[in-house]
Design a protein that fits this description.
This protein is of the alpha+beta class. It has one domain: Aminopeptidase. Helix content is 29%, strand content 39%. The chain is built from four helices and seven strands; from the N terminus they run E-H-H-E-E-E-H-E-H-E-E. A seven-stranded mixed sheet has the order 1-2-3-4-5-7-6, with helices on both faces. It is globular, with a radius of gyration of 15 Å. The chain starts with 8 loop residues before the first strand and ends with a strand.
Amino acid sequence: MAVKSSELYRFLPMRIDDLNMVHNLEADSYQFPWTKEIIRDCILYNYDSYSVFFGDKIIGYIISKISYPETHILNLTVNSKFRNNGIGTSLIQLIIDDARIRNSKDIILEVRTSNASAQSLYKKLKFEIIGLRKDYYECKEGREDALVLKLEL
C-alpha cells in the first residue's frame, strides 16, 4: 500500500521550540513579516496555534485566538512549495472545529485586498466579506487595505 504525501504531514500545537523555524518561514514568506518577538509572545500567551511539519521541517502554521463569542485568525502561512495541497484548508479547519467545541459564535480574519489566492481559500470555506480596514498592512507603496472576513459558526 502506497503512502499518500498528505499522510506525511504532522499538525501539532505550536511550541516555543518551533519559534526559529516559524519565524524563518514568516520572514521567507512576507516582505513585512511579524517579528520573532510577536510570534514568541503568541506562543507564550497560549494563542491557539498549530505548526505543520513535513519530516522535521515546518512548512506551515496558523496563529489564532479562540474565544467566546468571537475567534480571530491572526496569521496563516504555508511554504510556497507546499501550497495548493490542502494544508491551509486543514489549518483553518482545525481552528473552526476547536472554535465550535468552545462555543465561539464566529471567526473573523483580515486578508490583503491583493491576495486573491487567500481570498479564494476563505470563500471556499464560506467566509464572507463584512468590511474593509483602510491602510491595514504595510506594503512597498506604503499601506494596503484589508478585507475583513467572517464565518458564522
